[in-house]
Design brief:
The chain is 34% helix and 26% strand. The strands form two sheets. Strands 5-4-1-8-9-10-11-12-13 form a nine-stranded mixed β-sheet, sandwiched between helices.
């Protein structure tokens, strides 16, 4: 097992890395309000709107995490020529992400997840409703050619690539094949909401338990069934590793030629909010690989990162100092 000193060294190396991210950029919009009264029109609470908070979501949340770690994030993605697209680009810029290579497509609706939160003036706001604005990019056309051109231009600058597929059409088979070609960066890691088993040629994948069960075609209860299903997925893709995230049961890593590694959950299993935790895991994992980590070391760091963000409300990021503190305070996962 690796040491505390080694993990801290890897965290220190993060600012010297560059990670290219291809994915579905999403705006997470939080509308906050105070209960006013019960509506006379229907049995619902009327909220007096107080504030709105727009933060990067989906693949954009992974970008925000990379920036918070000091990594040079190289985003390639698409937003619509609409108000949520403006808000998302502004939120990314506020995080320090250069959005020059983000393409704006007329007629495409920027995917937006609107969460409505209510609570008293002196209490925490709780989510009372959510609605999603969704769209899907056309299967081909000028937008795809421009995305592939931007990948060709930026890939030589990156030590690793993250693919974040939420099903809105940005992460196409053609783009993945181009990245996995002869000029590929050393590491390509993929996370996909609906089709993780389709990413042949990548180096690593990060399915959550539900996604892994979908590929296995059966429920997975316990360490060994999870490890067996993850190994089957790894072999199917020809990947170097698969990292299964299992919520309050931690993570399971299977790596070519290595025994399965079961990593206990970091911190408490009583979480505050799991929103965007998978984006953080993908970002920390890929950044650590770019910094020279082994898959096992990168998985440990990703576990720390995920443990930090689930204790924050809303879509959140982890920074280097928080990672360092999590490593230093851990009493059981790594040796001094």
């Amino acid at each position: 097992m690796t040491s505390t000193a080694r993990l801290l060294e890897l965290v220190d190396r993060l600012p010297g890395t560059a990670v290219l991210l291809l994915g579905d950029l999403v705006l997470d919009r939080f509308v906050l309000g105070t209960p006013k009264r019960v509506s006379r029109e229907a049995p619902v609470i009327i909220l007096r709107r107080e504030a709105q908070r727009d933060v990067p979501g989906g693949a954009a949340n992974a970008l925000a995490n990379l920036a918070a770690l000091g990594v040079r994030a190289l985003p390639v993605g698409v937003v619509g020529d609409d108000e949520p697209g403006d808000a998302l680009l502004g939120a990314l810029a506020a995080c320090g992400v250069d959005t020059t290579a983000v393409l704006r497509v007329a007629g495409y609706q920027t995917p937006t997840k609107v969460r409505i939160l209510g609570g008293g003036p002196c209490s925490l706001k709780h989510q009372v409703a959510r609605y999603d604005i969704e769209d899907r990019l056309p299967d081909g056309g000028r937008w795809l050619s421009e995305v592939v051109d931007r990948l060709d231009r930026l890939a030589p600058e990156a030590q690793a690539v993250a693919l974040s597929d939420y099903g809105y059409g940005t992460v196409t088979d053609e783009a993945v094949r181009r990245l996995a070609g002869s000029r590929r960066p050393p590491w390509i890691c993929a996370d996909s909401r609906h089709r993780i088993a389709d990413f042949a040629g990548v180096d690593g994948v990060t399915p959550n338990l539900q996604e892994l069960e979908a590929t296995a075609g059966r429920p997975l209860d316990g360490d060994e069934p999870v490890a067996a299903a993850a190994e089957a997925l790894r072999r199917r893709l020809g990947a170097r590793f698969a990292l299964a995230t299992r919520g309050n049961r931690g993570m399971t890593l299977v790596e070519n030629g290595q025994p399965a590694l079961h990593i206990p959950v970091h911190g408490t299993d009583e979480v505050a909010d799991v929103t965007g935790a998978g984006d953080t895991v993908l970002a920390v994992l890929t950044a650590a690989l770019a910094a020279g980590a082994t898959p096992a070391e990168a998985a440990l760091l990703a576990n720390y990162g995920g443990g930090v963000v689930v204790m924050k409300l809303g879509t959140a990021t982890v920074n280097r100092r928080e990672l360092q503190l999590a490593i230093e305070r851990d009493q059981g996962t790594v040796r001094p």
